[in-house]
Amino acid sequence: MNKAVAKKGSGFFMRLGNCWLLRVFSFNFFAWIDYISNRKKGGCQSVGENGTMIERRGNMDRSVASLLDRIHEQYERWRTGPPLDGVELARFFNAVGRTAAVIGLSDIAAEAERLIHRLNGQTERQWTAEEALMEMVPLLRCFYEAGEAASATIPSSHRQGPKAAILLCGNDPLFFAYVRGALQTVPWRFTTIPSLEQAAASMFRLSPDCIIVSVKEGEWENPDLTVLLERAGQRPYLPVVIVRRDEGKEGRLKGYELGADDVITTPAADELFVRVRRLIEKKRKIDDLVLIDELTGVYNRKYLPRVYARLRSDLERYGAPSCLALLDLDHFKQVNDRFGHLAGDAVLQKLAAFLRQHTRGVDTVVRFGGEEFVVWLAKTSKSEARAVLERLQRQFAAEKIEADGALLSCTFSAGLVECDEPDRPLDYWLRLADKALYAAKRGGGNRIEEAAREKSGSSDEAPSQASTDRRRWAIAIVDDDELVRMMIADLVRKLVNEQGRKADIYEFGDGLSFLESPFYQSGRQSVVILDRVMPKMDGLEVLNRLRQERKPYKVMLLTSRQDERDIAHALNRGADEYVTKPFKWFELEARLRRLLKELDE
């Protein structure tokens, strides 16, 4: 709604008073009853308690906020009910359009009409709640950008900016769907977790660059919100933005008091983008200065070049070699699966503290990533380093780790290399240690393997490498849901470790980026896990392309539809496996295990 219309409407309402406004919403209420009565679950809440108007949300006109609340209510009915068909979705858009027209929101009414036309010919299609929500993203843009559409566009200069991972949490799916849709041209990766408790537990694992929390009126005292902000505050710097409905000063001060970095009333995408980007840039500057891993308290991998520079200097000046050991916890995935990720965090913290305590002051402990650690032993020969590592293995295996009431014991494997050539780059030594670690894992774990030196240009090296490549699986996960990709990747790693193999795991957020990737162009024999419904290109379209070009892929299709005809259709198109959401993880694991086995046949 432009400012002139808003100003004129405001004066008109003031002259007629609240009675006229309530009559409008009474008419609107019956329009909604007409729509809701066609739902099996039926029913519609009144405009507000005791017939009063719902309070204005942020800078939105109260009529816009009220209509948006009704859409939210309907989405929640869809989410807990059966799939809906195209006729029902069109009827919903028609009800929204009629309501918008009555209260003078012509842009919203026009968008609803356009969406109705888009649904022509799709009356038989079954829609999940999430699919319906993504379909109405253009409509949501009209709501959140009402009166400021001209300024709600993200400048093209920012679309190629730095990538960032954004965690969205809280129970406001409409706003989050709008944000993801409006910022789809920005190189940000979004993960949505409605539960504040789950978001707090997943924070270290997801490593977001910023957290956006939607807080409704009355949720300031939620203990899960307090825990989330406290955990974010434990990291060197992780910005948290609270998006709230109330616009009072008291709510804003409460958010800052709890530890938020910014507290804003439900904004349009351009404002949210600018404020979040500013915080991300600040985080990047701080991260460049921070060399300590926030979970374990030891150095992070950015510190490795400094360590190597010092030890290489010792080697050049005194001829004193050093030894690099790459350590990896054995069967760590099983700890996460059986006891949860908080127990996994406790194991990582225990190993880091143990390594610091049982190594010398001149040695360096670094968390390399995940459950891998680097122990760099200064002025130490290979035989001496092996003796140190064997002692550490025995002592750590005897340690008891308390996690969620259980006592755990763990072991680790290690790849060891002696750094005795100062002209070699750091990556050379890390590569050798990684190969030795892989050999230790393949040998059953709880082992120490010494690295074999690479022979440059050796003629007998190529066959060995080719043999390794044949035993190395390739898996592509194509799904627009970051959390789903992460969980499937964890499952793949579990299966790979069980088989004593190695795998290259590639993740893609949509079908188009997968088809344009070097991975696809290589045509390598692989397993492709493909989501049925994705932005830019439907999963079936990607499947058709794979089969038309005769790519050597084993394809597993994922979908939230459980219609047998739809499953048969996908299998006829060339899918090797078909798994429905929500997943039964044992079923997914069994089918994925079969496809991986077929890669070797």
Topology:
Blueprint lengths: L2 H14 L1 H19 L25 H19 L3 E2 H17 L3 H13 L7 E2 L1 H7 L1 H8 L19 E6 L3 H10 L5 E6 L2 H11 L3 E6 L7 H11 L6 E5 L4 H10 L3 E4 L3 H21 L9 E2 L3 H15 L3 E8 L2 H8 L1 H17 L6 E6 L2 E6 L4 H16 L3 E3 L2 E3 L3 E8 L6 H17 L5 E3 L10 H10 L1 E7 L3 H17 L3 E7 L2 H5 L2 H5 L3 E6 L7 H10 L4 E7 L4 H10 L3 E4 L4 H15 L2
Parallel strand pairs: 3-4, 3-5, 5-6, 6-7, 8-10, 14-15, 16-17, 16-18, 18-19, 19-20
Antiparallel strand pairs: 1-2, 9-11, 9-14, 10-11, 12-13
What is shown here, in short?
The chain has 24 helices and 20 strands. The protein is of the alpha/beta class. The protein is globular, with a radius of gyration of 28 Å.
Tag the structure with descriptive keywords.
diguanylate cyclase activity, 601 residues, 5-stranded parallel beta sheet, 6-stranded mixed beta sheet, Rossmann fold, Diguanylate cyclase, globular, Rev_trsase/Diguanyl_cyclase, 51% helix, CheY-like_superfamily, Diguanylate_Cyclase, disordered N terminus, 4 domains, single chain
Strand order across the largest sheet: 8-10-11-9-14-15
Structural class: alpha/beta
What is the overall silhouette?
A: globular
Total beta strand runs: 20
CATH topology of the largest domain: Alpha-Beta Plaits
Write down the Rg.
Answer: 28 Å
**Average pLDDT metric:** 79
CATH class of the largest domain: Alpha Beta
Percent helix range: 40-55%
Low-confidence stretches: 1-59, 456-470
Describe the protein's architecture and organization.
The protein is α/β, with parallel strands linked by helices. The chain has four domains: 21-35 and 59-150; 160-289, Response regulator (Rossmann fold); 301-450, 2-Layer Sandwich (Alpha-Beta Plaits), CATH 3.30.70.270; 472-598, Response regulator (Rossmann fold, 3-Layer(aba) Sandwich), CATH 3.40.50. The chain has 24 helices and 20 strands. A six-stranded mixed sheet has the order 8-10-11-9-14-15, with helices on both faces. A five-stranded parallel sheet has the order 4-3-5-6-7, with helices on both faces. Helix 22 (539-548) links the parallel strand 18 and strand 19. Helix 4 packs antiparallel against helix 5 (106-118), helix 5 (106-118) packs antiparallel against helix 7 and helix 7 (137-144) crosses helix 8 (173-182). It is globular, with a radius of gyration of 28 Å. The N and C termini lie far apart (63 Å). The modification 4-aspartylphosphate is found at residue 531. InterPro entries: CheY-like_superfamily (IPR011006), Diguanylate_Cyclase (IPR050469), GGDEF_dom (IPR000160), Nucleotide_cyclase (IPR029787), Rev_trsase/Diguanyl_cyclase (IPR043128), Sig_transdc_resp-reg_receiver (IPR001789). This is Diguanylate cyclase.
